[in-house]
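Sat 14:20. Reprocessing the chain from the morning session after the first attempt stalled halfway. Input below, unchanged.
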Amino acid sequence: MAFTIPYKLTLLMLLSSGRFANSFLTLRKTSSSPSTLLLRSKHGNIARQGMTTLLSSTKEDATADIKIPRKFKPFPFQYHEELTLTVDSLTNRGIGVCRANIPESAIPVDDDQRESYLEDSKGWVVMVPNTIPGEVVKVKVFRNFGTYSEADLLEIVEESPDRVKPICPLFEECGGCQYQHMNIGLQRDWKTSQVQELLERVGKLDPDTFPKTSGTVGTDEVYNYRSKITPHYDKPIKADIGDVQIRAIGFKKKTNRNLIDVPYCHIATEAINEKLTQYREEKYKEGLEGKLRRPKKGATLLLRDALKYEVGDLITEEQVVETDNNVYVKTKVKDLTFRFLAGNFFQNNPFMLPIMVDYVTEAAIQPNASGEKMTHLIDCYCGSGLFCLTASKDFEVCVGIELNSKAVEEAQENAKINSISNCKFVAASAEAIFMSKDPVEVITKSDSGEEVLSSVLVKDFPKKNTVVVIDPPRKGCSEEFLEQLYSFGPERCVYMSCDPATQARDAEGIVAAGYKITNVQPFDLFPQTRHIESLVIFERINS
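Finished this time. Tokens:
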């Protein structure tokens, strides 16, 4: 059955009435009358009497300021259709996973995937942020994809006992944090289970072949811990008074790429927030006065909480919040001092960092299967030399490799600052270290305590006494690096990762190459967020 309605009546009014909320309607302009819409129901007839009532009751809403996105796909749910669902689990992005049943009558007969929809007993996936598994929630759909939909949270019908009130008033919108609505114990439980699940699902590893993932380790500093943030602003607009106006300085929203203005970040240190207030005012003023460096573009700002660095001064510990990427700062990790460019990578939670360093070092120095001491360490993706230098006192020879030449310069300088002579750092891609023809020349100590110049190629390191520390970027290890690692065959691999998914992918290959997992340890480096740092220890299986 088909009939026409005035074109001025928007699709929104039809869908928001509730009467046709689950009718999966299709509308288009008719060829005979461009000013009308053709309405067809996938559920059969729509009574004219009901339609008349609908038109009458919705005329007052004709000016509602809600538009259906041009590319919106109206299957399986209409735009802003409301659903009441139960949250099953969380994704590794910290978003709640719900499942909704799609009535068979609602599935288009000509849909190529009709049979798969009907056979999927689990239901259609609907992603909803700011939810907790077990909760019953009322949601509003705003986007449909080929295999799932996304929705906004409208109401919590049945609340989890683990729900807490977020400290940040921007939490529901800001994409910086995902877990402020969950107590810290549950946050860490989920991070533990996600690491385990990824090793099984992505790594395709039998859970009976490796130790169960240990509980996530964290500290009591769950807010105001982060020592670096990088807020953004988009392209400024023309100001009514002055040159240009910055609209917002902050982070991307949870549900889109628009920025939300963030005057205070609850996970950043207090020193950063004090500086942020001043820095925001400076930037807004620079825009109005025409002093922005790139007035026609947006920018990413830096606020790094560290210690002031001056050449030759390793004693003074003056705290600064640096905003210039190219200024050197320093920080203390246990008994070592590290100097680095403020804009370069360095772990951003000073409370957790010493704990992570201890775990890596302890794993690296354990005797091999024959009870022999580990003597050589290779630190791949070494950055400023954190793991290599902190473990150096327990090894005879250490070598670090890093693609970023600036970071290598920092690592070399950090070795000098801390009077460490048995470490060498190389600027190259990680896979190059095993085939390097440049000998590792370091000063070591003989059994009698005498200093001796040691010169040896990495490929000639004693494999049974060598440990490789791996700390790659989020994308994980390259295939070339892994192939070189397998060929070299060290006794042990200590793999720290900021993305357990790519770590699990790499773990599949490492295990297949003749290694077994002896320990899995997650770290809560960034409380209130979905981010997980994960340590996996691989030991070579002796034939």
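The radius of gyration is 29 Å.
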